[in-house]
Amino acid sequence: MVPKPSFSTAMSKLPISALPIPAPKRLLIHNLTPDTWTPNPVHFRTKVLATSPSLQRRARLLSPPCHFSYVTPFPIPFPYDIEPPSPTDHLENAADKNAYIEQWLSKREATIVQPPLPRFPNSSLRKYYGQHRDQPAELVGLSETGLRDCVPQLDVGDAFAVLGAPSLSGEFEDEGDGQPSDIPEAVEARNDLVDVLSGHATLMTPPEVEAESAFAPWSMRYSGHQFGSWAGQLGDGRAVTVLVTPNPSNPNETMELQLKGSGRTPFSRSADGLAVLRSSIREYLCSEAMQALGIPTTRSLSLISLPALPVAREKIETAAILTRMAPSFIRIGNFEAFNGPTNMFFFGGGQQNPDYDGLRILGEWVVKEVLKLPVEEGKPWGAELVYDVARRNAKMVAGWQAYGFMHGVINTDNVSILGLTIDYGPYAFMDVFDAQHICNHTDEGGRYAYKYQPSNIIYALRALLNALAPLVGAEKESGKAVTEGWAKDASEDKIKQWTALGVEIAGEVERIAQQTTADEYSRLLRKRLGLHRPESSDERTLFKPLLNLMESHRLDFHSTFRILSSFKAAWLANSESGTTSPELDALISRILAVTPEPERLDTETAKKEFLGWLTAYAARIQGEHADAAALSWDPDFSKAEEQRFTEMRAANPRFILRQWVLEDVIKRVERDHDSGKRVLAKVMHMACNPFEPWGAEDEDTPEGELSAEEKAERDYCGLGERKMLGFQCSCSS
């Protein structure tokens, strides 16, 4: 049996290999259906890894009832460089040659168990290593906020000390360089962390643990629509969940740790299962930046470079492994896998026939353990699942729109059941406001342009409903939850009947999504403008006119909001007829200065239009203050103005992960890891604290008198070179 996790009121920190795992009833692998070729962790470890490891690395369709496959991280170059056998090996036939390949792979698989760390002899897990797999792994980044929020019980040892002091300007100076600790336990905890999160060591339960309680890593099966076209089985082609650990404050909540870029899985199709340093840096930073902005997201824990592992993209690049975290990585595509729109087969892929019991099993797990919906035992849950996913994703996309985030690839397999932003690829934050902006240069038709993001979430919700429709219809007809074998004897006509009955809730799903998005977007825009009272006219009189001004005069989205934090309604009240106060003139000039093309700006027209908007804004502010007590404003108007300034500063970021900043950070890390990791740490710190006045924002210090670090911060808060504005990325990662 696996030792039960124990929690004390004073949290004790543990190295990663000593972290507890949940009870089997809280583990996905003991509640969903495994790949028939990897039926349980013990069979997987003793049979598959030892004699037929290619099962994990060959692209193949899982059997229709299966939700996942056990897989170990395997970050080695692909195609695999298998040395030809020597003549003395006497490989007479195909079977001998196949056995030779299996043996070559097995020697590199995690089959050799290590004893637990001496300080933690009763750990639930053990580290397993391969015989012939040893490559350098360098910790490049560690997220302090991800660690704090998601796995506060994890001991990372001297990892932060080794990374060095965060710096944009002094990264080449000796002072602040990373230094390992002289405390053996601290070094041990850091090495343990890097071993596991680099994919070098695999965490599994000890050999003596029986199958029903055992643990091994896995990758999920899912399908999906990509750019509106059905793609069939996709799945975790380069992601492996290596650990699930309970929340020390609430053992009923768990956190899943997943390695991205850790090698091939059965879902890799023709890809190598690896990730490059460039794209890994982008996801590592943005996951935490989104959290700081209050937008639901998966989280990042670590970034590890594998400098000796080449990856072929448009050019040969360096590999990296990102560790990301979430309570669950289940997506809409997981449901589509069990009832997709068509069945198809092609080399290396396709789509299985529907499996309605697999759909039920997945839904029951998601309702109870992932969404934790308060559905009474035996009562229908299918429609409630869809409604809840609609609300969650509507709130998420409202956050995207309010903060100018563009995902770039909102395929249905990239939409989380929990409503978390997931799979950061060719994303971007808005520079100059352009509602039509397309951040992904492979999106030639503009399907995922900024303005269409809410519509694409609704498209994904329709796909979820279509997958669940027969189940929803069957529950609607009976008034009860479906049970095992619910569709086993149903005719094709009956399935169609149930499906038609299920899709009747489509209108309600869309209504929920649209209303939730509108409400949340309005809430966030009011927050950005320092307003407390919802008014139905805000979209028409304030939000849309402001965005139109930004778009028509090519003004930077985030800088405009940040500058508006300094606006005082009293400036308009104090202006004499036909004139404006010097403060108001100065504010409008500052706003108009955040255009990358001042030569194209019609200054007089822009000033006049902004003055008109500010007049309406001031009236709205004063109207709220007339009801100050009810709206939690200070009764003194001048103090209320200061209150609004403080609130707006905490809602409008000074620092944003612009494309040019990301490209600059990537270049500096790729050029030199030792100095680059200090730059990366500083940018992560800025991204996690985006509302701080970076670069001496509030000081009148001349540029020449700023410290080198302040000047670098100020540069990183700027628009950057004009050629990088609206820069588009590709999906290549």
UniProtKB/TrEMBL annotation:
InterPro entries: SelO. The keyword Transmembrane helix does not apply. Keywords: ATP-binding, Magnesium, Metal-binding, Nucleotide-binding, Nucleotidyltransferase, Transferase. Residues 695-707 have a biased composition (Acidic residues). Residues 692-712 are annotated as: Disordered. Its cofactor is Mg(2+). Belongs to the SELO family. This is Selenoprotein O. It comes from Ephemerocybe angulata. The lineage of its organism: Eukaryota, Fungi, Dikarya, Basidiomycota, Agaricomycotina.
